[in-house]
Amino acid sequence: MSTPILQVSGLRKTYGRGQNRFEALRGVSLDIGEGESLAIVGKSGSGKSTLMHLLALLDVPDSGRILLEGNDTAGLRGARLNRTRNKTFGFVFQQFFLTGKDSVVENVVLPLKIAGVGRRERRRRGLAALEQLDLADKAGNKALDLSGGQKQRVVIARALVNNPRIIFADEPTGNLDTATGSVVEDILFTLNREHGITLVIVTHDDDLAARCDRRVVIRDGILVEELAVTEARA
Ligand SMILES: Nc1ncnc2c1ncn2[C@@H]1O[C@H](COP(=O)(O)OP(=O)(O)OP(=O)(O)O)[C@@H](O)[C@H]1O
Ligand SMILES: [Mg+2]
Question: Where's the ABC transporter domain (predicted)?
Fold first, then answer.
């Protein structure tokens, strides 16, 4: 397999205190290869989103290490952390809503704005990303006015506008009908195949998991299985 782009070891994460204390991750170790597509599956509440947030450097573990391209991320703070996230990652998370009153292209270029890219270049790259997702004609519409599947494609356009190395997707097809879901899936796997973008996908959908190179199963905060999809199908 290719060299790991992410290496995590012994990740633990506890939420809350006292009676509300909950150990969401209880020691997770995992390597993710560059260019790989990885599915993270498991029951509701098992810790999938928690793990994803840690991998994407959106939250910090209580203990354990996360190496990005061999470099320990523990020391990354503030502007450097933001820059690293912005440069390396794209996010397809349902929590990261589109701003409904802003136009589609303004939503797409948000990561570029954060990265300090100038207005004209932002617009050029935003329109190119929308073009890739067959949404160029909606660039000027308010995000609010799009259909569910179109919104999800805008989220993908936003995730790829900064030319990321890794796309993190949490239930990318969860709220979509089957046909639209498979369009969104196809887009993600095309990005993986043709641009070598590493995919890390949390999903409840077995078919989507089966399309990935590999899947890991989390149960109660512990990684219990790591299956190549071919084995999983056997
Ligand atoms: N901020 C928080 N405070 C307290 N507990 C939390 C917090 N966030 C998550 N948890 C708990 O941690 C556990 C793991 O949550 P997580 O969101 O990672 O689950 P998940 O596997 O993504 O579930 P789902 O499939 O429903 O999205 C759950 O039991 C949840 O209730
Ligand atoms: Mg979740």
Answer: 6-234
Q: What is the pLDDT of residues 55-101, one digit of tens each?
A: 999 999 999 999 999 999 998 988 889 889 988 999 998 766 789 89
Residues 6+ apart with CB under 8 A from 34: 2, 3, 4, 5, 165, 196, 198
Mean pLDDT of the chain: 91
The yes or no reply on domain 37-44+79-233 and CATH 3.30.70.330 is no
Ligand 1 pocket mutation pick from 21, 40, 48 by most atoms within 8 angstroms of CB: 48
Q: Would the CB of 174 count as within 6 Å of ligand 1?
A: no
Which backbone phi and psi does 175 adopt, to 5 degrees?
A: -100, 15
Whether 198 contacts 88, CB under 8 Å: no
b/e burial code for range 128-160 (CB count within 10 A of at least 16 → b): ebbebbebeebbeebbeebeebbbbbbbbbbbb
Q: What is the pTM of this model?
A: 0.91
